[in-house]
């Protein structure tokens, strides 16, 4: 009997309107500026067709060239400036919600944990990426 995957939640509130947050979250030229967990990594390329049925792929790589991987999937539900749901290539699912709070926007990501790394490590990594996103949006 298969058990349901553990869900992990990360969240941040960004001092920007939802339209700007949505644009920076989805435009490839912005994704490459924030989609990594630490300063010794980067995202050298990103492709994104943000619509239900569309696909995305972001390459994440160590700056020293020692390791890289592609993070990708297919969107199962996209409601502009509100929600993004997608399936990753390994079968796990993610839901991202954008909640406008006047002059700020809360971004919440709920994702299925993978079975290789501890849940705390996964949460910390996804939260670090979301924190980079917040910093990027607020600086641009």
From TrEMBL:
UniProt domain Activator of Hsp90 ATPase homologue 1/2-like C-terminal: residue ranges: 15-138
SUPFAM superfamilies reported in the protein's UniProt record: Bet v1-like (SSF55961)
Pfam name, any one: AHSA1
Similarity comment: family membership: Belongs to the AHA1 family.
Protein name listed in UniProt: SRPBCC family protein
Provenance organism: Dyadobacter chenhuakuii
């Amino acid at each position: 009997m298969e058990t349901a995957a553990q869900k992990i939640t990360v969240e941040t509130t960004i001092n920007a309107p939802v339209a700007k947050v949505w644009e920076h979250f989805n435009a490839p030229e912005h994704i490459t500026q924030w989609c990594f967990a630490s300063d010794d990594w980067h995202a050298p390329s990103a492709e994104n067709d943000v619509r239900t049925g569309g696909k995305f792929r972001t390459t994440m790589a160590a700056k020293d060239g020692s390791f890289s991987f592609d993070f990708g999937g297919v969107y199962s539900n996209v409601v502009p400036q509100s929600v993004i749901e997608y399936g990753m290539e390994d079968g796990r699912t993610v839901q991202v919600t954008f909640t406008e709070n006047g002059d700020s926007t809360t971004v919440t990501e709920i994702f299925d944990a993978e079975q290789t790394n501890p849940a705390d490590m996964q949460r910390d990594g996804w939260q670090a990426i979301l924190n980079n996103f917040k910093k990027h949006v607020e600086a641009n």
